[in-house]
Amino acid sequence: MYKIIRAFILFLVFSVTAFAQDANDNLTRIKNGEDVNLLYRNEQSFGIYVHSAGGIGVAYRRGKHVTGTRKKMFEIEMQNFRSPKEVKNLSSYTSNGYVYGKLNSVLVFRIGVGYQNIIYKKVEKKNIEVRFIAFTGITAALVKPIYLIVTDTSNYQGSTTVQRYNPAVDNQSNIYGKAPFSDGLDKMSLKPAAYLKMGFSFDYADRYDAIKAWEGGIIMDAYPQALELMAFSPSRNLLFSIYLKMIWGQKWF
Predict the structure, then answer these.
(1) pLDDT tens-digit profile of 149-205?
(2) CA separation for the pair 229, 231 (Å, rounded)
(3) β-strand 42-51 against 55-65: which pairing, if any?
(4) Which residue, among 248, 246, 249, has the nearest Cα to 51 in the 3D structure?
(5) What is the reported pTM?
(6) With 0-12 CB in 10 A as exposed, 13-18 as middle and 19+ as buried, what is 236?
(7) Whether 109 contacts 142, CB under 8 Å
(8) What are the Cα distances from residue 97, in Å, to 30, 75, 88, 186, 200?
(9) Where are the domains of the chain?
């Protein structure tokens, strides 16, 4: 009986010691960003991207696993939007540049939800994980009319005034330059829309609890009320842009 009790006690001691050692090993591996065969259920990331609509954007995402290979995501973005026909001109009177024919400047905000599906899972830290992403949500375009400094060519004194750009009156012969950004702030309007985004991301992080990725895809914004960007181009209800984004973030259990 004594031998059985002693053997049982030794078994418990060795089991607890082995469990504690495994736990310590796992904690060490987690701190080192190594794979512990556990699922990081949560993540958040930040991104900076360039896009074909002539500018840059910033983004934030928050995600959570719903299956082993699929995450539900929430995102917020902000970017500018310009017409591809914009060309900066120099005034005949000064070096103050302006874009001839530009009616409005546009700043776009997006809030949406979507999914991220793993196409190729990273099995080693040196591998690249490939994912497909799809989002939809609400777009709000902050539209600010363009104001210019114009000169009265019929006036010998060459006096100038600040006024909203009028393509029926203003031309390259009487535009003195672009007015300060503050002019027109009281005339801003908000244009609601819906957006759809699809793309692929490639995560190359050397830690399993980190995110370092490049993402590329296409965004479509659909506006019920067409946006007026350029004076001599038709207004557009659908705006497309291709983007390339650099992403970094973290994961946790």
Answers:
(1) 888 765 555 678 888 988 878 877 788 888 888 899 999 999 999 999 999 999 999
(2) 7
(3) antiparallel
(4) 246
(5) 0.81
(6) middle
(7) yes
(8) 55, 36, 6, 23, 38
(9) 1-32, 38-252
Q: What span, in angstroms and rounded, lies between the C-alpha atoms of 239 and 253?
A: 38
**Are 57 and 49 in contact, with CB atoms under 8 Å apart?**
yes
**Two tokens at 194?**
């819906």
CATH topology of domain 38-252: Porin (2.40.160)
Helices (H), the chain: 2-31
* Spatial CA neighbour of 213 closest among 243, 250, 249, 247: 247
Place of tokens 């080693």: 124
Q: Report the distance separating Cα 78 and Cα 83, nearest Å.
A: 17
**Distance, CA of 19 to CA of 89 (rounded, Å):** 72
